[in-house]
Amino acid sequence: MQKTALGTTGFDIVPLVFGGNVFGWTIDEKISFSILDAFVDHGFDAIDTADVYSTWAPGNQGGESETIIGHWLKAKPAMRDKIKLFTKVGDDLKIPGHKGLSEKWITQAVEDSLRRLQTDYIDLYFSHWPDDSTPYEETLGAYEKLLKSGKVRSVGASNLDVEQLSQSLAVAKQHTLPAYQVLQPEYNLYDRNGFNADLQGLCLRENIGVVTYYSLASGFLSGKYRSTQDLSKSARGDGIGKYLDEKGLGILKLLDEISEHHQAQPAEIALAWLIGEKAVTAPIASATKTAHIESFAKAMSVRLSDEEHQQLTDAGLV
Fold first, then answer.
1. How far apart are CA 239 and CA 110, in angstroms?
2. Mean pLDDT for the chain?
């Protein structure tokens, strides 16, 4: 598959990233292994996870996703050279001191992630959420040490707005510290606020790579959920009801029309739209079946016309 540069990280990726939040939550280790195998077999090469995945599931404490990926890499060590591995630090692990972006916690958290992932290095390490209690200088200084040690190869941030990202870049320049090279915002056909025009412009000017999460709006853009009765179809259903409004149903109608023209599925069109967005490097998408990986591959081959892309853009701005 054709690859694209991920900001200034120095490496290229196939422009669709696997979202590892499902590992240890909606799928067990055995199914996770089969899906990871299928993902790589189809030519994809970037996997995103976080230390906090998946604390929200009953009986979990965090680290479940990283642990499953680590078991997969131990079982198939050749896979490590075939993938770029992303993980995150900063979310609340529900243990005193185990959250935020202080140097002390980052230094411990990266070791915990490396141990769970069973690897010597992380290709891209994200600040998961802004931390108002820790200066950017301290956080970026901690990352500088990790970069120099080789434990981390590039750094990014998730959920920053344009002011926060601008401030972090200014601090990096002022103190000659590593700047964030990748941004991970919430962005899809329905949700646009997390990556608005100002933030897009900043990323384009500074050559910051962008990988979007909730790329399918928690599965809503697959077309699987079209009424409140459909919300019981999966563990994610509770968070999807908000999309069942005039705007959401209008987007689904347009996706249906464009899907029919391309002989594709709505999810494939929604991903193709993101892949075609100028400021987006790659969407992140999750899978619970190997058939979903095949759908990802189809999304990569869809070529939307300029008119179709604009129609989809306009539908999400209603």
1. 30
2. 96
Residue with the two structure tokens 């900043």: 202
Q: What is the pTM of this model?
A: 0.96
CA 59/CA 4 separation, integer angstroms:
39
In a domain, 239, yes or no: no
What domain count does the chain have?
Answer: 1
For residue 293, what are the domain limits?
4-219+253-315
Whether 228 is covered by a domain: the verdict is: no
Q: What is the pLDDT of residue 267?
A: 98
What does DSSP assign to residue 81? G
Query: Residue 224 falls within a domain, yes or no?
Result: no
Distance CA 13, CA 211 (A): 11
Residues in Cβ contact with 90 at an 8 Å cutoff, skipping those fewer than 6 apart? 99, 100, 101, 126, 127, 128, 129, 131
Output the CA–CA distances (angstroms, integers) from residue 222 to 77, 192, 202, 251, 272, in the order listed. 33, 18, 30, 11, 12
Please say if the pLDDT value at position 241 is more than 90.
Answer: no
Is the bond into 54 cis (omega within 30 degrees of 0)? Answer: yes
In a domain, 32, yes or no: yes
CATH number at 71 reads 3.20.20.100
